[in-house]
Protein 1
Amino acid sequence: MTHIRNTVRVVALAAVMLVGAGACAFDPRADGGRGGGSVPVGAAERGTGASDTPGPDRETRAADTPKPKPTRSRTAPSPRAPEPSRTAPRPRPSPSAKGCPQGEYQRAVETYLTRLGGFGTITVDGRQSAADCAAIKSFQRRYDIRPVQGRAGPTTYDVAKRLATTDTDACGAGSGTTFCIDLTRQTTWVMRNGRVLEKPTVTRTGMPGYRTPAGTFRINYRNVKEWSNPYEVWLPYWQHFTQGMGYHETTTYLHDKAIGSHGCVNLLHDDAVRYWKLGKVGSRVVLIGRRPGT
């Protein structure tokens, strides 16, 4: 009988040891990375954050949070909600557009855009407003001034000034359709029977070494898409008038003054399309002035 009891005790002790061993896992760190220790299951996960304490964007599991023991104390009455304080009303935002910065040429641009007309309501006071911003953005989109952000910066000022100060009568257009180019201001417009048919727009002519000459010429060749042999580039809406020079859509950013054409008269896309529709072989082209630096 005593032998049986001892046998039962040995079996029970072995079972306890097996259950305890099942709650541990091998940890290679216990001996400097060479094995020989144990660590509770889940320690490796905690090391990588898999079972770490929840952060602000992680939910806490109910099993991880100890449940408070119920108490028999009476529930205290909930405090009264605080009355809203009587703060002063917030001032209404100013009429200036949010995210529409004011440029260093604000008043001048306002003045020139008012003179040009057609870009919206503008107040000439040197202060940016929502209406001013919308008008300047409309102007920038029309003449491909980048970025379109409503800021009266140097390029916007330069283009507005050139357009607003162009004298449309200076090219002496007579009867019929005449294409006029002011080389000094780098602007171009169209006259018909002595009246403005297309208002001045921006252009870019020959750079130093490739000066576009002043004079009176006539369009003698047109092609909706001409290939330039010497420069290996397509020239959309090509209208030639002298010495390999003519109107065509620009192939680069028109407002980059560091470069220029090889004598041609560069146009923005929309202007090139308009001029193509208005022009024909025999149309008169008058160039006045001289591009600065050429």
Protein 2
Amino acid sequence: MVDEDRAPSPEEMLRVMEEQNVATVRWLYADSVLLYVPWGVAWLFGFTALFLHYGLDGHSYAPITQMQGVGVLMAGQLVAGSFAAFGIVRMNRLVRGGTSMKGAMYGYAWFAGMLLMTVIALRLGPQLPPEESGLLWAGSSLMVVAVLQMAGGAVWGNWPMFFVGAWVAGVDALGVLLGAGWHALLTAVLLGGGFIVAGLWLRLRRRK
């Protein structure tokens, strides 16, 4: 029997599994710009527009309507979501087996979470004042992002990804408690700017 025809040993199978996990983690670091920066840009511009509409004292700082601010945010998030979807598809092409299955299930979890959040906000939003309705949409969407970022970090053993999710959860909770204007400001600066910095830092870290 030639060497190519023999069954792989348990040690070889374990090595292959470890290589797949390492490849996935490397991919997450390598495309950190692709994963984080688009979301950071979307939140920076979108929530800045909403902050200028809400203000911190109940008065707008610029002639921007709530719907215009939401439009900027939604357009940016659609672009960012396209980048994220491309990244997940690319990851699944680079890995096989159980790791690929995890990536697919993780992608479906994002879709299901955002869909459920949209249904809840559509049902409850009209029953609230405009400012509180906007806060419901913003706070619940960031909650989904926070939970799934932390879950992704747990699935792939990626601590930076987990901590990013925890950071999103903390900022989101504080902003919801303070009100719509503060939520928009904190999200724009700490999450929008923070995601841009995190993506660039992780890319630089991998190159060292």
Protein 3
Amino acid sequence: MSIFLELGQRPDEPGPPIHGPASYPVDVATRLRDDAAIIIARYPDSRSALLPLLHLAQAEDGCLTPAGIAFCAEQLGLTAAEVTAVATFYSMYRRTPTGDYLVGVCTNTLCAVMGGDAILENLQDHLGIGAGQSTPDGRITLEHVECNAACDYAPVVMVNWEFFDNQTPSSARELVDALRAGEPPTPSRSGSLCTFRETARTLAGLPHPDGADDAATVGAATLAGLRIARERGMGAPAAEGPARDSTSDATGHEQAEAAEAVKDEPAPGPSADVPARGQTEETDPTAMDTP
């Protein structure tokens, strides 16, 4: 008996993982190179700038496109395959066009218990779209997200990765209605709400679009554990000092020279002289006397 397996895209995947224009117009590429130069200059190894450059490309297109992938590869001396491998790993890099406001509803355990599932279902009905889809006016993209690390004020909705705490189905409807009306409300933990592309540019490490100092605030629920610990005199144990060895008295210059001399050598493997972690002379068979 033979079995036929058809390989390819899943039914819900709209074409290749990253699709769109293959290159940028000359004026756009020139402008992006100026921004990229600022970002790359911050890193001793240029390829370390890949993640912020991907945000820069996303700020241009609203998602990652072959043009953005090619641009990042060209700036960093990487192949398109290397850039794509990174871009498709992280969920913050979008593969399909994204609206002005990316609305993410957390339905992980605590948010679900507190009503996250109901909020997502309500927004899907209210907007007439499913999770992962955008409204026809291009204002909102709705998605289901994993834990937002904001359980202290569950259930939480995020808009362009800004928190809106203690949500209910009705407050979430009011939130998206305000976004569609061009009247973005103030997030729970910061001073302003940017569009998706403005947020991506900020994540790339470039100046905030309006120059505002958007410092986050911390609520009482977030600090509850710290407050209780202080009231009860609780604290972390003191760290033990590092064991001294023959190199502990070396100067910083000598230590740097020693590190440079062995930086390309492989780490030593277990041996009679260098036992595996947790292995002692009593358990190391190479250290035992043979009859």
